[in-house]
Amino acid sequence: MTLVTFLFFTALVGILTWILTRKDDHGTSTGYFLAGRTLTGGFIAGSLLLTNLSTEQLVGLNGTAFSDGIAVMAWEVIAGASLVIMALYFLPKYLRSGIATIPQFLEERFNAETRTITSFIFILAYAAILLPIILYTGATGLMGILDLKEITGIQNESTLLWITVWFIGIVGSIYAIFGGLRTVAVSDTINGFGLLVGGIMITFFALNAVSDEGIFKALGELKEAHPEKFNSLGSSESSVPWHTLFTGILLLNLFYWTTNQQIIQRTFGASNLKEGQKGVLIAGVFKVLAPIILVLPGIIAFHLYGSQEGFKPDHAYGTLVSAVLPSGLAGFFAAVMVGAILSSFNSALNSTATLFSLGVYKHMIKHDAVDERKVINNGKLVGAVVAVLAMATAPLLAGQEHIFGYLQKMNGLYFIPIFSVVLAGLLFRRAGALHANIALVTGCVILLAGYFLPGFKDVVEKVHGFHFLGIVFAGLMIYQFVMSKVSPLPEPWEHKHSGDVDLTPWKWAKPVGIGIVVFVVVLYLSLADFSTLGG
C-alpha cells in the first residue's frame, strides 16, 4: 500500500507539471534557462524553498538538532534575514543587468576571465560536492521511509543504495535536462506544498507522541525535560556556538541566498522586480518558521530515543517518521520527500547546464554561437554527463558521520571567494578585474589549504572553522578595497539597465523585510540563556 501511494503521488506531480508546462518555450535561451521571464512570486517562493529543502536538511539538520538542540535553527532563521538582503539589495541589481547567471554579472562588472573562473568553480563544485550529497542523502532517506529492503527483497545495503541513487538521479535528470527552469519551478511549487503539509504533520504527530494532552503541553514537557536543548545561543561545544553567527554562519547564508546560482536562478526569471521581491520575501517568511519541521522533530527524537545506547543522530528523523506517521500516509510523505530530493538535484543540474551553455560553450568555445538550440543541446549534454558522474560518486559518501556538517564545510571552499568578489564588485566601483580574479583563485587555494593541508589544518581547527571562513572573507575584501585605491579603474563602474525587466519595486518589500528581521531578533532573544555565554 505504501509503495502504491508513493508511486501515485510521484506520478501525479509529473503529470501536473507536464500539463502546466507543455506549451512553454524550451527552444530559446531565455525560455529554457529563465522560464521566459514569466515567473511570478508564488512560483519563485515555492521553487526557492523546495530547491533549498531536501534530505540533507530534513535528515541532516534534524540530526544536528538531536545533538545540539534549537541553536541549529541559525541555519534557517539567519537565512530568512539573508533573503531580506537579497530582495532589497541584490535582486534589484541583478535584474537591472538582465543576467541569467552570476558569472555573467561578473563579466559585466569585471571581464571575461572573471566569468570563466567563476563558471568553472560553480560547475566543479556542483558536480563534485552538491549533486553527490543530494543523491546520497536522498537515497538513504528514501530507503528508510519506504523500508526498501523489505519491499525489494534486496538485503545488501550497498547494492540497494546504488539502485536508489540511480533511480533518483535518472528521474531528476529528466526534469532538469528536458524541461528547463519553468518545469523545475512548477514541480518545485507542487512538491513544496506537499512537503509543507507533510512536514507539519510529522511534527504534529511527534508532539502527540510526547503527550496526548495537546501540542502545547508536549512543548512544555520537552522544555522542562531538556532546557539545554532550547537555548538559541547554544554552548561552546555546539556545532553553531553563538559567536559564529556573525562570521561563518552569516557568510554562508548570505552567499547561499544572494549569490548561489543553483538557488537564485529562479529569481532571474521573475516577470518583474515586484514579483521577484514578493517571491523572495515570501520564502523569507517561511524560512524563519522552518525550524518547526527542520529542528523541533530532532529535539523530539532526542526526548524519545536519546537514552538508547548507540543511537545515531542522523537516524533521528527517519526513525521518528517511521514511528509516528500513520501507515496510510507513509507513501504520500515518501513521494513528497522524493520531490524535495528531485527539486534540489534538478535545480543544481539545470544551473550546471546554464553555466556551461551560457558561460563556457557560447562564450568561450563558440563565440559566434547563434543557433540557440545547439547552445541548449550542448548544455543538456553536459548536464547528462555531470548527472552520471554524480550518480557514480554519490554512494562513495557512505560512512560520512555528519553529512550536513560535511556539506557546510565543503560549501565554504567556493562560497566565500565568489561572494567576496560579487560584493566587492558592487561596493568598490573602481575595483578592477585583475584583483577580482586573484581573489577568486587565492581564496579557493587558502581554504583548501586550511581544510586539508597538515599543519595549517591544525591551526584552523583551533580558531574554529566558521571563524576561519570569516577571516578569509575579510582578507579578500580588504585586499580588493586596497587595490581599488592603489590600482583603480580609470572611471568608476556604471551599472546600466538592460531594459529586460521592469524595476518597479513591491510596495510592501521594506515593511515585510523589516518584519522578518525583527522576528529573527525577537526569536533569538526570547530563547536565549545568557548565563551560558561564559561557558
Key features of this structure:
535 residues, mainly alpha, Sodium/glucose cotransporter
Strand content: under 5%
CATH topology: Sodium/glucose cotransporter
Q: Tell me what the CATH architecture is.
A: Up-down Bundle
Q: Into which percent range does the helicity of residues fall?
A: over 70%
Describe this entry's structure for a reader.
- There is one protein chain.
- The protein is mainly alpha-helical.
- It has one domain: Sodium/glucose cotransporter.
- Helices cover 75% and strands 0% of the residues.
- It has 25 helices and no strands.
- The protein has helices at 2-21, 29-34, 41-52, 55-58, 60-68, 74-97, 102-109, 112-146, 148-152, 157-179, 181-210, 215-225, 248-258, 261-268, 273-289, 291-294, 296-305, 316-324, 327-365, 372-393, 403-427, 433-452, 456-463, 465-486, 509-526.
- It is globular and about 70 Å long.
- The termini are far apart.
- Residues 25-35 have low confidence and may be disordered.
